[in-house]
Write a structure and sequence with these properties.
Blueprint lengths: L1 H9 L1 H12 L11 H18 L3 E5 L6 E6 L7 E7 L19 E3 L8 E3 L7 H16 L6 E7 L9 H7 L8 E4 L3 E2 L6 E6 L1 E10 L5 E2 L10 H10 L22 H8 L5 H8 L12 H4 L5 E9 L9 E2 L2 E10 L5 H14 L6 E10 L2 E2 L5 H14 L4 E4 L6 H9 L3 E3 L3 E2 L10 E3 H20 L2
Parallel strand pairs: 3-6, 3-7, 7-18, 8-19, 9-17
Antiparallel strand pairs: 1-2, 2-6, 4-5, 5-20, 9-16, 10-14, 10-15, 11-13, 12-14
Bound molecules: ligand BES and manganese (II) ion (MN) (2 copies).
């Protein structure tokens, strides 16, 4: 893999420029106004696979956004790795909180990225991390160092729940057949503390609507006599956690397994600086479920959070109005053995049951996803671990992540294979937030590490 490494070094500037070009297209999957940009991004990704030397590439249309596929078979008797990534991004809003426009990438230095980081929506999640795989392939191809068969499946709907990817995987299961799925859409603990994600949380996402009087009313003339739907919704939401930070929905924890004391102690060995964490978020206290550490609360425990809430008058100045409707979007992060369909149903039944007389409550489920865990005693985990140890000079720590990639559990179901979650971002890279960025160090460390994964995977027993 030395020639591959050398090739990357010699092409550093071009590899960076090409990522910048990809980041300029606003591939916002959630907003139909950008569907043409999503399409242009798919075409650019396909072109980049062609340019990298991938034998066969094709864009598959879906009822939503297209899927880019590529395949490079060097010898059918060798193992096959399927690379998964997504080229769609989250909406950049709120725009006024960005220091530079989200689709005009710029490089700036930060405390954690002294070599510079690229600031743009999608730089880390997931265009930057997905593109590392394209460039790693290109370096291997041009160095004649491809050790196994490689397939690419890059989708444009991850941020909206991968709605059409499941059907695509089932329909093309034969074409997509592989021995393992490799993806970089997660994080490492720090640039000098590599880690491999071995678990993802599931997700149940609901929207609720509370309706009171049949129109907005004068809050003086009617205030005090009818149930105010925003007051009611606030109260209902407030009862969803008890004084210990536990979720009060009956049955919510029924399928949650406790980790053994040993497992919990093992987890706590990974470095975590609580003061720095608080400082980075601008808070003076952390909160959450009693009896668990911050790391546990964001990985092995389920949670419930309001993601947005609105109703009544939210414009400039004061308008005295008693609103007719109130809304909230609520997400629940789930852990292994919980099922998002079941949790959504439990939520719905409970939320309707706690509605006060005088209002109507409707719960509408959005997309969801199952949690996933990946074992550490497999050939693929070992290959990833060796690859990271090779380039970081330090053995990576297995770590359960707090985010969700619903498609990972589906890969296991449809292809019967495990995934390796070898991401290179930092949790502080502000994915989904204003000023998302990705370290240049991280980008090139990824491009350098990925070829070693293939190498160890193809040669390890
Ligand atoms: N890449 C993230 C998930 C992630 C981030 C996992 C950091 C681990 C560490 C992914 O793009 C994402 O944002 N997923 C969504 C779920 C999806 C259904 C919209 C999420 O976690 O909110
Ligand atoms: Mn992602
Ligand atoms: Mn994301």
């Amino acid at each position: 893999m030395e020639r591959t490494r050398e090739y990357t070094l010699q092409n550093r500037n071009r590899y960076l420029d090409e990522l910048m070009k990809l980041l300029k297209i606003p591939s916002i999957s959630a907003d139909p106004a950008y569907s043409n940009d999503v399409k242009l991004t798919a075409e650019l990704v396909k072109q980049s696979l062609d340019d990298a030397g991938v034998q066969t590439t094709k864009i598959y249309e879906t009822e939503g956004h297209p899927i880019v596929y590529g395949e490079h078979i060097i010898n059918p008797s060798l193992p096959t790795v399927l690379v998964y990534g997504h080229y769609d991004v989250q909406p950049p809003d709120p725009l006024d909180l960005w220091d530079s426009p989200p689709f005009e990438p710029v490089i700036k230095k930060t405390d954690l990225h002294p070599d510079g980081a690229i600031f743009a929506r999608g730089s880390c999640d997931d265009k930057g991390q997905m593109f590392m795989h394209v460039k790693a392939f290109e370096s291997m191809f041009n160095s004649n160092e491809i050790p196994c068969n490689i397939k690419f499946m890059i989708e444009g709907e991850e941020e909206v729940g991968s709605v059409h990817l499941g059907a695509f995987c089932e329909e093309y299961a034969k074409m997509l057949s592989c021995d393992v799925v490799l993806l970089s859409d997660t994080s490492i603990i720090a640039n000098d503390v590599p880690s491999i994600t071995v678990g993802l949380r599931g997700l149940s996402y609901v929207e609720v609507k509370v309706t009171g009087p049949n129109k907005d009313l004068h809050s003086g003339v009617y205030g005090g006599t009818v149930v105010n739907p925003i007051n009611a919704l606030s109260k209902m939401i407030a009862t969803l956690h008890d004084e210990n930070g536990k979720i009060t929905i009956p049955g919510f924890y029924d399928r949650v397994h406790d980790l053994s004391q040993e497992e919990r102690e093992e987890m706590e060995k990974a470095p975590f600086d609580e003061n720095r964490y608080k400082k980075g978020l601008g808070v003076n206290e952390l909160d959450g479920e009693k009896g668990y550490t911050p790391r546990e609360r964001t990985s092995i425990r389920p949670t419930l959070d309001v993601n947005g809430m609105w109703g009544g008058y939210i414009g400039e100045g004061a308008k005295t109005v008693l609103p007719s409707e109130a809304f909230a979007k609520i997400s629940m992060r789930l852990v292994p053995y919980q099922s998002h369909e079941e949790i959504t149903e439990l939520f719905q039944n409970y939320f309707e049951s706690i509605a006060p007389q005088g209002v109507k409550v409707e719960v509408s489920p959005h997309h969801g996803g199952q949690p996933a865990v990946t074992p550490t005693d497999t050939k693929e985990y070992k290959a990833a671990s060796l690859a990271m140890e090779k380039t970081f000079g330090r053995k990576p720590i297995p770590e359960r992540g707090g985010g969700s990639i619903p498609i990972v559990s589906l890969f296991e179901k449809v292809f019967g294979v495990k995934s390796v979650l070898m991401g290179f971002g930092l949790n502080s890279d502000d994915i989904h937030s204003p000023n998302e960025h990705y370290g240049i160090f991280n980008y090139f460390r990824g491009i350098e590490t990925i070829p070693y994964f293939y190498h160890y995977y193809a040669t390890e027993k």
